[in-house]
Amino acid sequence: MLKYAIPILASLDTAATIAFYTEKLGFTFHHDWDGYLIFSRDGVNIHLWPTDDPSIPKNTGCYVNVTQADQLYEAYSAHQIIHPEGKLKDMPWNMRQFSILDNNGNIIHFGEELGEE
Hints:
This protein is an alpha/beta fold.
C-alpha cells in the first residue's frame, strides 16, 4: 500500500537553497517550478517550497535513514553545517545519528541503524 514518503521543507531563498543542497549536501538538483525545488541523492528525494516567513523552516525538518553515517558526518562536518546539538552519537532508539541545519534553518537528521554497515 504505502510506498515511500518525500519530505517537503521550506525555502527562503531559491538560489541559496540550490547551492546549499548541491554543493554542501551532494544532492542532484532536478527542478525549480516558481521556487518549488526538487532534489535527490541515492534514491532519497527532498522537495522545498518557497516562503518569506523565516519562522517556518525553524520549525520543520525531516529524518533520513542512511548507511555509513560516520563517513557522511565527516563529509558534512567539513562544510560546518552540523547542528550545534547534533553531533554524531548513538541514540537510545538504536540509531547512530547526527543533525544538520540547512541554509533556511530546516533541521535534517541522518541516522543509521546500529549494527548496520
